[in-house]
Amino acid sequence: MQNNQDKKNLHNELHKEFYLTCEKYYIFELLTLTAGMMGLYTYNLRGGVFSNAQTGNIVMMSLAFGEGRFSEGIYYFIPFTAYVLGTIISEILPEKVRAAHFVRWDTLLVGIEIFALIMVGLMPLTWPNQIVQVIINFLCSMQFNTFRQAEGVPMATTFLTNHVRQIGISIARVIKHHELESEARVKAWRHAKLILAFFTGGVIMTFASNYIQEKSIWLAVIPLSVCFIVLLRSDLIYERAMLDIKPHGH
Prior knowledge:
Elements: H1 2-17, H2 25-45, H3 55-66, H4 70-100, H5 105-121, H6 129-146, E1 149-150, E2 153-154, H7 161-176, H8 181-212, H9 221-238
Antiparallel strand pairs: 1-2
């Protein structure tokens, strides 16, 4: 028992200083760029729903129910349900994937996203919007719940509210505690870059959707493919012996 506890303590100490590839900041930047594309895709081309987070959908749903437009309210309940389901699945599957000891759940998820978005791009705009809404809300939910911390700092890849909050907190710390100025600036800049990545993805998708319509979602496959190659290479080579280590925040 003592030997097992010593191993656990050693694992915890090493894990404090080491960040897996799936926790690297540039991975979060690429995922956030992708999320910006997915969010604008569903809003601009697939029925005007928000795929990244559910506050907007719940606002629209409550507005519809409050005005007696119940069928429209149920319309917004569909992506909400898909988001909840994505969270449940992304809590259950990682343990099973880890037990297989082949690749990380994080890597597998990015591969699933690539495949799903390729399929979405093949679905004509004449198809029911709910099909694509469910798929992309499901993906965004799993991505948000899976990628939780970038190099020890809690960060979201699918929506921006907390990044805006953290920038405000960092600026306040600079004003109140000048000795923390350098640290606070670095933290604020990191959050700002994720906002910029999301914004860039949204601009790219808005522009592309005017020309290649449903196939514009394939642009999101590009940053996802970069992530997948980097993560898979780490799982199979550099971090092969570390597949049992959970990312921070899990």
